[in-house]
Amino acid sequence: MNPKIDEFLSKAKKWQQEMEQLRNILLDCQLTEELKWRQPCYTFQNTNIILIGGFKDYCTLSFFKGILLKDTDNLLEAPGENSQSVRIIKFVNIQEILEKETILKSYIYEAIEVEKAGLKVELKESTDLEFPEELLQIFKENPTFQKAFESLTPGRQRGYNLFFTAAKQSQTRVTRIEKYLQQILDGKGINDCTCGLTKKWPRCDGSHKNIR
């Protein structure tokens, strides 16, 4: 048992009992626990397998390669519509965790076997993205910007593209692109701050303080 996880759970304001039970189940499956991204992370031979997370309305088990699991009991769901690999199981009380313990262990052991077998998730590359016309027009007008965008990691390109295309109005899409033009030229993702921290949790609040 990692003392960092003891500290994490002792400070949890919500879902403490549920997360402690999930922790017990994961440790019983012989996984190693670490604190990564300020969350309990469970690994097998130094490879990330599962995260425990606490949110406003539920707590979760997040399987890094959940898409590769058989999901025989239909428990897994994507955390977002564009999630390619991660799949989560949500819990809202301790009782359902206790009732599903045997099933959860079967999912965990399957995730370990996926890692043992060296299976990989085939992620869609940035070339599969459909860029909005407004972005393509700025590429034509500013080749330096286009080169900077294409130099971003596939994940960062995808993040920007989702944000740009989510706008319903053309002018809004242009405004969003222009707002992040310099940040893209600097090689940063949409959730990166100039201070080097991220705007996601744990994130920068804009005044260069790390907050939750």
For this entry, give a set of tags.
212 residues, alpha+beta, Aspartate Aminotransferase, domain 1, 2 domains, five-stranded antiparallel β-sheet, two-stranded antiparallel sheet, 42% helix, 16% strand, disordered C terminus
CATH class of the largest domain: Alpha Beta
- How many domains? The number is 2
Give the second-level CATH assignment, the architecture of the largest domain. Alpha-Beta Complex
CATH topology of the largest domain: Aspartate Aminotransferase, domain 1
**Lateral arrangement of strands in the main beta sheet:** 1-2-3-4-5
Helix-strand topology string: HHEEEEEHHHHHHHEE
| Beta-strand content estimate | 15-25%
Main sheet makeup: 5 strands, antiparallel
Structural class by helix and strand composition? alpha+beta
The end-to-end span amounts to 24 Å
Roughly what percent helix?
40-55%
Query: Runs with pLDDT <50, length 5+?
Result: 196-203, 205-212
Number of β-strand runs:
7
Q: What is the 3D shape?
A: elongated
**Alpha carbon gyration radius:** 20 Å
**Number of helical regions:** 9
State mean pLDDT (0 to 100 scale): 87
Question: What would your notes on this structure say?
Answer:
This protein is of the alpha+beta class and 212 residues long. The protein has 2 domains: 3-116, Alpha-Beta Complex (Aspartate Aminotransferase, domain 1), CATH 3.90.1150.200; 126-211, no CATH class. It contains 9 helices and 7 strands; from the N terminus they run H-H-E-E-E-E-E-H-H-H-H-H-H-H-E-E. It has helices at 3-10, 16-28, 94-99, 101-116, 133-141, 143-151, 154-165, 170-179, 181-185, and strands at residues 32-36, 39-44, 47-54, 59-63, 87-91, 203-204, 210-211. The strands form 2 sheets. It has a 5-stranded antiparallel beta sheet. It has a two-stranded antiparallel ribbon with strand order 6-7. Helix 5 (133-141) crosses helix 6. Mean pLDDT is 87; it is low at 196-203 and 205-212.
